[in-house]
């Protein structure tokens, strides 16, 4: 059973920084891609950033130039470095991984971590 465990959320003032981490644990799996989504109150969950196993990245326009996604493949961990945070970045952030187990690809989610940006 593959699990994702997130950490790093919290309260920060506008203009500040936070780094989120998400570690995948389990046995006999590989990862095609990992990403971060967020869901603000009353809004739909949206993709924030994604990184493939080959290192290709993509970001939602609203975070380009401020957020950076990266991985430590040896640790099966994905990070989201968030700089110049804005109140509109306030949301629950969820880690997602496309996990390959044998011939099956699964979409796994972390438990979510709250990021609150005060003005």
Characterization of this structure:
Helices cover 0% and strands 61% of the residues. With 119 residues, the chain is mainly β. The radius of gyration is 14 Å and the shape is elongated. The protein starts with a strand and ends with a strand.
Radius of gyration: 14 Å
Q: Please provide the ordered H/E string of secondary-structure elements.
A: EEEEEEEEEEE
Strand content: over 45%
The low-confidence runs, each spanning 5 or more residues with pLDDT under 50, are: none
What is the overall shape? elongated
Could you provide a short overview of the structure?
With 119 residues, the protein is mostly beta strands. Helix content is 0%, strand content 61%.
Topology, please?
Blueprint: E1 3-7, E2 10-13, E3 18-25, E4 30-39, E5 46-52, E6 57-59, E7 67-72, E8 77-82, E9 91-101, E10 104-109, E11 113-118
Parallel strand pairs: 2-11
Antiparallel strand pairs: 1-3, 3-8, 4-5, 4-9, 5-6, 7-8, 9-10, 9-11
């Amino acid at each position: 059973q593959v699990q994702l465990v997130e950490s790093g959320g919290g309260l920060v003032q506008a203009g500040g920084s936070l780094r989120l981490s998400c570690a995948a644990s389990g046995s006999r799996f590989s990862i095609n891609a990992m990403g971060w989504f967020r869901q603000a109150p009353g809004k739909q969950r949206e993709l924030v950033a994604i990184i493939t196993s080959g290192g290709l990245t993509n970001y939602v326009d609203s975070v380009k130039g401020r957020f950076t996604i990266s991985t430590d493949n040896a640790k099966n961990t994905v990070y989201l470095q968030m700089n110049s945070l804005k109140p509109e970045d306030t949301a629950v952030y969820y880690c997602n991984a496309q996990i390959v187990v044998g011939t099956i690809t699964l979409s796994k989610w972390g438990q979510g971590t709250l990021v609150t940006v005060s003005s």
